[in-house]
């Protein structure tokens, strides 16, 4: 049977090996996480630049044409385009309360009349980015 000192030495030896492996794993995870953050920032910059280029070139080439020429899926191009656009801010709902409820009810009763219905008018030509036109009926109130 080992002595008390021998048991302590064995535990310390086992702990030293485990501690070194834990330290190595923590260092590696930290290094990889830092690298990931740098690459994610670079990728974000490239995606913003792609969105800007897509927005600027939208008047001369359409997403479907770009997809056909570049073999990049149209959905991916559209995502880059939409991510580059500034997002619309949402309106906050006013805090609830009795005063607000009465105001909302008053506004509902004094709402504007029904919206005007749209009627077809003579045909109009709509130019396409890739050339040519499409004739569609224009809708007017």
Order of helices and strands: HHHHEE
CA-based shape: elongated
Distance between the termini: 100 Å
Number of helices: 4
Count of individual beta strands? 2
Low-confidence stretches: none
User: What proportion strand?
Assistant: 5-15%
What gyration radius follows from the Cα positions, in whole Å? 32 Å
How is the secondary structure organized here?
Blueprint: H1 4-57, H2 63-70, H3 74-84, H4 98-109, E1 119-127, E2 133-140
Antiparallel strand pairs: 1-2
Would you mind describing this structure in some detail?
The longest helix is centred in the first third of the chain and has 54 residues, at 4-57. The model has no long low-confidence stretch (mean pLDDT 78). The chain has a two-stranded antiparallel ribbon. It is built from 4 helices and 2 strands; from the N terminus they run ααααββ. Strand 1 (119-127) and strand 2 form a beta hairpin. 1% of the residues are buried. By secondary structure, it is α+β, with helices and mostly antiparallel strands.
